Amino acid sequence: MDDMGTQEPSRRRLGRGLNALMGTGVMGGTDAAAGDQSVVHVDLIERNPFQPRQEFEQTALNELVDSIKQHGVLQPLLIRSAGGGYQLIAGERRLIAAKKAGLQEVPCRVLDLTDQQVSEVALEENLKRQDLNVLEKATAFQNYLQRFECSIEELSRRLSMDRSTVSNMVRLLELPETVKSDLHADKISGGHARSLLSLKNSDQQVALCERIQKEGLSVRKTEEAVRELLALNGDIIPMKGKKPKSETAVVELTPHVLSLRDQLRDWLGAAVEIKLSAKDRGKIIIDFQSTDDFERIVGKLHRAA
């Protein structure tokens, strides 16, 4: 367990220092962590390339525009120098609203941050201040893991989140496109989608997704339907005390093996399945989403070896 009193600066959780960066702590201009405050023309500020949010709710954005027209931008934007201008770190909604309100200049704090730190601040701001769409979160996490060759455990620690939450979020990207489209449109919930992940047959995932909407299945009812399908597929053994009769039958995973599987998922940042054909024999299946993802996983295995 880390000793908070002796933890290295590079290991500090982002959330502990974000208030200072975001200007929600001490507002005095003498705080070194807050950077130099100044007024910057809106045309000199480019979008944050690490911004996980792709859509902004229009009603809330219009309300912010009205507020800025009356009171101005009350909280400075966070920016960093980029070429001949600046790059946004945090505050994209405020920047968009300020432009819509007709402002030519906005208050900013200029910080000196690395790409990785900028990515973390963008994640932290959106995760903790206003919820992202669940797929935007998943995509943002996956992009971070691949770009910075980071493990799920490290990312979850830096964001002060449970690692299983991050892992399950990333795995949503494995779902078929039609299911992800329904999830994005809020036709099914994140809980429904996570239940569907247990099914390895994409046709079954799509069919059950349609059934969820048609029959109005709760998450609990969806989980029951998934277990029934898994039993029919032979992926799990019906709980009647019967052991598999052949070497090709699937052996139910013990809690210890399930724990090891989850550790592999977290470490590799990828979907991992363990199939046992006997008590001490089986196979490990590692999924990858692209050539880059494959090379990232192989690189991790090489370094571990």
What labels describe this entry?
305 residues; alpha/beta; Conserved hypothetical protein from pyrococcus furiosus pfu- 392566-001, ParB domain; five-stranded mixed beta sheet; two-stranded antiparallel ribbon; 7 strands; 49% helix; 13% strand; disordered N terminus
SSE run? HEEHEEHEHHHHHHHHHEEH
Overall 3D form: globular
Number of helices: 13
Regarding CATH, which class of the domain at 12-114?
Answer: Alpha Beta
Based on CA atoms alone, the radius of gyration comes out at: 23 Å
Name the average pLDDT: 77
Task: Briefly note the structural class of the backbone.
Answer: alpha/beta
Largest sheet: 5 strands, mixed
Low-confidence stretches: 1-34, 237-248
Helix residue percentage: 40-55%
Task: Provide the CATH topology of the domain at 12-114.
Answer: Conserved hypothetical protein from pyrococcus furiosus pfu- 392566-001, ParB domain
Give the strand line-up of the largest sheet. 1-5-3-4-2
- The separation of the N and C termini measures 25 Å
Q: Strand tally, please?
A: 7
Percent of sequence in beta strands: 5-15%
CATH architecture of the domain at 12-114: Alpha-Beta Complex
In short:
This protein has about 300 residues and is an alpha/beta fold.
Note down, in words, how this protein is organized.
The protein is an alpha/beta fold and 305 residues long. Among the domains are: 12-114, Conserved hypothetical protein from pyrococcus furiosus pfu- 392566-001, ParB domain (Alpha-Beta Complex); 175-236, no CATH class. 49% of the residues lie in helices and 13% in strands. It has helices at 14-22, 58-71, 92-100, 115-129, 134-147, 152-158, 163-171, 177-184, 190-196, 202-215, 219-233, 255-268, 291-304; strands at 36-41, 45-46, 77-82, 85-90, 105-110, 272-278, 281-286. The strands form two sheets. It has a five-stranded mixed beta sheet with strand order 1-5-3-4-2. Helix 4 runs antiparallel to helix 5, helix 5 (134-147) crosses helix 7 and helix 9 (190-196) runs parallel beside helix 11. The longest helix has 15 residues, at 115-129. The radius of gyration is 23 Å and the shape is globular. Residues 1-34 and 237-248 have low confidence and may be disordered.
